[in-house]
Specification:
Helices cover 36% and strands 16% of the residues. The longest helix is centred in the last third of the chain and has 12 residues. It contains five helices and five strands; from the N terminus they run E-H-E-H-E-H-E-H-E-H. It has a five-stranded parallel beta sheet, with helices on both faces.
Length: 107
Amino acid sequence: MALEYLSPSDVAALCAGDAPPVIIDVREQWEYDIAQIAGSVLIPLSTLPERVGTLDPSRRYAMLCHHGMRSEMAGNWLTQHGFAQLINIDGGIDAWSVEVDPSLPRY
């Protein structure tokens, strides 16, 4: 299955539902310290290959970064490694702060 692209609003709606995806934030620690989505899991893109074993290929994950490029790379990499339920959050946390949670700092 290919990487699915959804808006922050669509992902927020999924997160409020019965089977929310796990949000994987692939930004760096310093970025995560500025703004983060509650309950998200920080796995910087550079550490994904060594941390992939901590993820369950049967779970649904929503990938997040600053604007959507690193999360797209992470999602495509995970797809190649057997993960089938992956979402790329279009526009990243920057778009999330505009569409879903204006209290998040933009940087």
